[in-house]
Amino acid sequence: MELITSAKNNRVKDWAALKQKKFRDQTGFFIIEGIRLVEDALESNAPIEVVLLAEDLIVSGKADKIINLSDSLQIEQIKVSQAVIENVADTKTPQGVVAVARQYQHQPAGLIESRKQSLFLAIDSIQDPGNLGTMIRSADAVGAGGVFVGKGSVDLYNPKVVRATMGSLFHLPVMEVNLDELFPLLKRHDVTIIGTSVDHHEDIYSVDLTGSIAIVIGSEAHGISEEIRRHIDRWMSLPMPGKAESLNAAIASSVVLYEALRQRRM
């Protein structure tokens, strides 16, 4: 296993640059960090190019599973110093493992065609990495066919988003798209587009959430953007008999997705 100890190494500099969106966009790579997350990515056959392992982690035996999985998939492994890990990782106290992976190249048309009668989640202008990650996890949990992240949302491959998905990014198709172009494509495949809004009185329990549908969740501050609203086929809201004005977008999406799952299981 190759050993790199200097943070000034050119490859290390390239990996560290992936913490910035500009370089992720230029290279098409992103970073995955943490023992469990890297294990999950490897088990899900994520497009990993190289795995960086801290010397101490290898000695402790905690990296054995990652090493074995990487070997079986013929993925390059590099032993690095703690200084290198700290330079490449996004967290303040990294666990000693970082993987560098290619961004997924899912195609909306192929996905929609292959997953008829599916439940999709479309996300419009969500800025918080934790919220986006949680929404992807919820979609994964209910068995959604895929997640479409609209332009204007936080970068899907932001390290905080990747961590917040807790591995769900590797389990179902998630892609960044122009929603204004996606929705006509969905409609051509007979997918009903259902928007969520506090301004509409038809609640989620009276809306049919079976069949081919795409549920659209907008930002907490502004809801679904004006240019997207014209594509909505039907609106629904969450009943809130209490005094709260609104729900966190991630929580709202989870409630709606699980209501859709309930209806589909019936």
Automatic annotation (TrEMBL):
Coiled coil start-end = none
Q: Which GO terms describe its cellular component?
A: cytoplasm
* Keywords associated with the record: Methyltransferase, Transferase
Say if the entry is tagged with keyword Transferase. Answer: yes
- State which residue ranges cross the membrane: none
GO molecular function terms noted in the UniProt entry:
RNA binding; RNA methyltransferase activity
Output the superkingdom of the source species: Bacteria
Q: Which CDD domains match?
A: SpoU-like_rRNA-MTase (cd18095)
Q: Which GO terms describe its biological process?
A: methylation; RNA processing
Q: Which Gene3D superfamilies match?
A: 3.30.1330.30, 3.40.1280.10
Which InterPro entries does this one have?
Alpha/beta_knot_MTases (IPR029028), MRM3-like_sub_bind (IPR053888), Ribosomal_eL30-like_sf (IPR029064), rRNA_Methyltransferase (IPR051259), SpoU_MeTrfase (IPR001537), SpoU_subst-bd (IPR013123), tRNA_m1G_MTases_N (IPR029026)
Task: Using the record's annotation, list all stretches that form the RNA 2-O ribose methyltransferase substrate binding domain.
Answer: 31-107
* Entry keyword Transcription: no
Q: Which family does it belong to?
A: Belongs to the class IV-like SAM-binding methyltransferase superfamily. RNA methyltransferase TrmH family.
The name this protein carries in UniProt is RNA methyltransferase
Q: Which organism is it from?
A: Effusibacillus dendaii
